[in-house]
Amino acid sequence: MAEIMSESEMKSLVDALGKIVGPQNVLDRATGRKKFIGDQSWLTYVHAHFNKPLSVQDAVATPHTTEEVAAIVRLANERNIPVTPIGGASGVQGAADATKGGIMLNLYEMKKIRNLDKKSLTITVEPGYNVKQFEIDLNAQGLSFTHYPASAEWASVGGCLAARGSGVLSTKYGNIQDHVLSCEVVTPTGEIMHLPRVPKHGAGPELTQLQIGAEGIFGVITACTLKLRNVPAKRAFNAFHFENLSNGIEAGRLIMTTGLRPAVMRLYDEYAATHSLERAVQAGLTGVTKVLMFDGDHPSLVDAEAAIAYDICKKLGGKELGAKIGETWWEKRYVFYHPPYAPELPQMWCTMDVVADFAHIENVYNKVTYAMKHALDPKWGLHLKTHFSHWYDWGSMIYPRWGVPVGPNDLDEAVKLHNKIIHDATMAAHEAGAVINDHHGVGLRLAPYMKVELGEAGMKFLGGLKKGVDPKNIMCPGKMGL
Ligand SMILES: Cc1cc2nc3c(=O)[nH]c(=O)nc-3n(C[C@H](O)[C@H](O)[C@H](O)COP(=O)(O)OP(=O)(O)OC[C@H]3O[C@@H](n4cnc5c(N)ncnc54)[C@H](O)[C@@H]3O)c2cc1C
């Protein structure tokens, strides 16, 4: 694999890409690196800050059609050059960083709707459609994607699929893998593959799902068919204060295991409620808080479902706080990802997302909290806010968000500190019975832990698949712990 490309090889690549997508849609090494620093992970930012960028693409190509994508991938195979797809570059793990150089494939301009089927409530769309705009455009027709990641204003539909993402309504509507029916994929050897039109079939293993969460290693998603819903006729919000986290978790377990499906169920630990949620809702929160939202096409059903869930909360000592807290959170849910709330260098920050069944989740919370709080010398002043925001009928996930007010003024030292927290917390989660992440993807941050998660045999299987479909290791080489 060519990792260091000479100036003349780079120019020849730019020329060849220009013949496929038009010269106006190609950036050379210098401009390409300036315009695309990589994704939004702290790792990407801190490396760029110290002038040692992680994303070192030799060219950026912006295709507009599947055929152009296929031609680019074939060119990369001919020249033995890496390809890294990029959507909205909102990933937080460094997955979209072109760490081995080569071609960065910017898919953000492939955003046509190919088909809208109002009878089946499905849509076939290209990967570059921005998620927020997608929802706005669908809402104008009374429809909804129901996939609302907090990064909606940057994220692309294709990036959500490739990173196996989740949205704030996942507890009812599922994660992105539950929204997708089918995909069109350019394979790592540059062929165009059309997968079965619906995910329920007996035609062998589900190859569409193999692309979901693959972060580009198995090819480029050039279109997908997604489920839609109607914009709900009613949304009912409420919030509850709990004496302790255990009761809040137990209320969530009873809600989920008895078949109720809140669209939103967010349980904040005491510090997250008083230092994070409180900033948004300013309701004088004093401790563990759960925000609930039920929605649906049939208002009477929404009310009935909500009433049963509220009873469950009250039986576990939950004190009803009313609709306003949830309504305000819903209105302001994107505000916190912008200044002055969003963290910036020289701070250090990261959100982890680990998931476990109900038998383990409280212990996972305790062990991860302990590991993070003890990972560093107290002089760094690490702060930690944790909430549970995606629930399943078998378990839940925790979002520990940590920050260090001022990180070291040295790249190696900063990365070492960052890796120590990630290592201690990831291993603590794994040992307590959790999966190393719920939906933020693997990228650079979790690549070293793929073996911990899948074991030797699992890694061999994954590596075998990769070798079989991508014999020249063109797509995102070195990623996914391979
Ligand atoms: C403030 C903030 C909040 C966030 N909140 C959430 C959240 O609520 N839920 C959530 O799930 N995530 C969240 N994220 C993480 C991130 O937004 C998601 O992972 C999102 O799905 C990434 O989409 P993207 O288009 O930006 O992908 P990118 O970052 O561009 O790429 C992600 C990965 O997918 C690959 N890829 C991109 N497009 C394709 C394609 N068409 N074919 C094949 N591979 C492709 C890339 O190579 C890379 O490996 C958040 C991020 C930020 C910064």
Describe the structure.
- This protein has helices at residues 7-21, 29-35, 42-49, 66-79, 131-139, 157-162, 170-173, 176-179, 207-211, 245-257, 270-281, 299-315, 323-332, 361-375, 411-431, 450-469; strands spanning 26-27, 59-61, 83-86, 103-106, 113-117, 122-125, 143-144, 180-186, 192-194, 220-227, 229-230, 234-241, 264-268, 289-296, 319-320, 348-351, 354-357, 383-388, 395-404.
- The chain is of the alpha+beta class and 482 residues long.
- It has five domains: 7-107, Uridine Diphospho-n-acetylenolpyruvylglucosamine Reductase, domain 2; 113-230, Uridine Diphospho-n-acetylenolpyruvylglucosamine Reductase, domain 3 (2-Layer Sandwich); 234-336, Alpha-Beta Plaits; 343-445, GMP Synthetase, Chain A, domain 3 (2-Layer Sandwich), CATH 3.30.300; 446-482, Vanillyl-alcohol Oxidase, Chain A, domain 4, CATH 1.10.45.
- Strands 12, 13, 14, 15, 16, 17, 18 and 19 form an eight-stranded antiparallel beta sheet that branches.
- β18 (383-388) and β19 (395-404) form a beta hairpin.
- α10 (245-257) crosses α12 (299-315) and α14 runs antiparallel to α15.
- The protein is globular, with a radius of gyration of 23 Å.
- The two termini are 15 Å apart.
- Flavin-adenine dinucleotide binds at residues 39-40, 84-92, 95-96, 107, 127, 149-151, 154-156, 158-160, 162-163, 165-166, 215-216, 220-221, 337, 439-441, 476.
- Residues 39-40, 84-92, 95-96, 107, 127, 149-151, 154-156, 158-160, 162-163, 165-166, 215-216, 220-221, 337, 439-441, 476 line the site of flavin-adenine dinucleotide.
